[in-house]
Amino acid sequence: MMASPRVRALVETSKSVAEIRLLVQLAPDVVVPWRWDLPYLLWAAWGTERTARWLADQFHQHDGELSRLAGGEAVCQALRRALEVHHRFFRVAWLASL
Question: Taking 70 as the threshold, does the pLDDT of residue 34 lie above it?
Answer without folding.
Answer: yes
